[in-house]
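debug: dumping io for the single-chain case to check the tokenizer round-trip. Nothing else runs in this session.
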Amino acid sequence: MNLAYDQSPDTGPAVVCLPMFSMSRTATASAFSPALAGSGLREIHLDLPGHGDTPAHCPPTSQAVLDTVCAWLDHHLDTPALLAGGSYGAYLAAGIARQRPDLVRGLLLVCPGVTIARHSRNLPDQPPLDAPTGWLDAAPTALHAHLDAALGHRTPAVVATVLAALNSGGPGDATFQQELQSGPGYALPDEDADATFDGPVSVITGRQDHIVGYADQFRAMRHYPRGTYTVIDAAGHYLPYEQPTLLRALTQDWLRRTHI
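debug: decoded output
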């Protein structure tokens, strides 16, 4: 249950933020802290096993990662927490709400993975939005294809912000991450469970997200009787860095519904 983490000095209820795959708690803070600013919540940003500064001390499966996070929550928190996550972190947060709803007060799911197998994701079939010439010049060539698919707000400034997030925090364990992502245990065993979570939920997606899409997330809303769903134009998979003002507005709405 030893996870590297940072927390804010606030004394309010806890909001635990889980990172995107391969990213660190530093990147998660840069994504979510501006949206949570002024809330008085005690922000806690975790590095998952094999990510950032946390060693790979569990088997390379999503269930083992989820169990490790749940053990951390059991050990460090006395009351249910708000969970916020992006992409894989949101996939895990939704899984925790299914498996351990006693730990969860509400969910903020940004560009969440719904189905882990890439071939089964319902992705947008529209072409990417226009972008200025040379908008990807600052990015390493190896990242061009990924960023071209991932970004809806396609400007050099957004690329610079995303690159800074990708390069922030501890180094992680690349071997563990590769084994996790390519192994049979990448999907949670209850991914398709017909379970509901009754707490306040906000699901925020990008209209131009060609990594996880937005349609699967809308269909998943049947699991959230108190859920709000939003799809944002000119936003992709790195939505917190592409549309921070809209993310803050939607996060504040979610916080109002948590009655904190």
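debug: round-trip ok. The chain has a mean pLDDT of 96.
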